[in-house]
Amino acid sequence: MLRGYYTAAAGMLAQQRRQETLSNNIANALTPGYKADQATLKSFPELLINKVQSKQISSSKGVHIPMMRKIGSLNTGVYVQETIPDFSQGALKETGMTTDMAIVGGVMPDDTGGLFFTVQNAGGDVRYTRNGNFTVDGQGFLTTQEGYYVLDARGNRIATDGEDFTVTADGTVQLAGGNVNVGVAYSANANDLVKNGESLYQLAEGGELLVDARANNAVTFSVKQNYLESSNVDPNRAMTEMMQAYRVFESNQSVLKAYDQSMEKAVNEIARLR
């Protein structure tokens, strides 16, 4: 019976984590470039139950032969194995701001690759983002809204000295002092990237290094100025999945209460000494 406690409790914990993931998606439904997380559930290893008994054979010595009868498998619950971002393209929204950019195309629907702007975080490390909601800081550098520097194709900061500049479809920033290519990195497997907060991604340990998208002839893309890529969160679907997760949570909760009542009866009534 205690096994049932663990199984029901594991189901409740899994649905709670799923609810947290869906809630975070809904909270970021208006965040440019945000990629919805998908929680993947996996079951614990199943147990094979066998009944062990013995059968007596008629003989002068009364021989007992051990026998085993298969009863069946027992599932021991589920857990959230990991959360995987959905890197599908979000809808484009025109903003009219020259500092806003969006990456379009470049990856087929059945491809696992992804394209990202390259930025430099506060620690000086290279990070990746789909959020092209950029701005220009007091020193004239192109930065994210959090103040992280946007990098060019060579890994250098981009100095625009103002918001009066043009970005061509191939990602070339046309400036008075010379043109530079905004950094666009390509990952052959976008699942090698993990979220690092503030719309940033970093390469997971053991992941394949990202390369300059322009160096890969198989990848074609365009950069649209004055546009932002919207979040790919579907609020209606997310709300439906939240209701489903809540109902499954309640079902496991009811099972847990039933086990608790059975244990209470076993302790207070069946095992009572008279």
TrEMBL record:
Assigned protein family: Belongs to the flagella basal body rod proteins family.
Source organism superkingdom: Bacteria
A Gene Ontology biological process term: bacterial-type flagellum-dependent swarming motility
Record key words, sorted: Bacterial flagellum, Cell projection, Cilium, Flagellum
Positions of the Flagellar basal-body/hook protein C-terminal domain: 224-268
UniProt organism field: Aquibacillus salsiterrae
Residue span, Flagellar basal body rod protein N-terminal domain: 6-35
Species lineage: Bacteria, Bacillati, Bacillota, Bacilli, Bacillales
InterPro entries in the record: Flag_bb_rod_N, Flagellar_FlgE/F/G, Flg_bb/hook_C_dom, FlgE/F/G-like, LlgE_F_G-like_D1
Domain Flagellar hook protein FlgE/F/G-like D1 residue range list: 113-174
Name of the featured protein: Flagellar hook-basal body protein
Location relative to the cell: Bacterial flagellum basal body
A GO-annotated cellular component: bacterial-type flagellum basal body
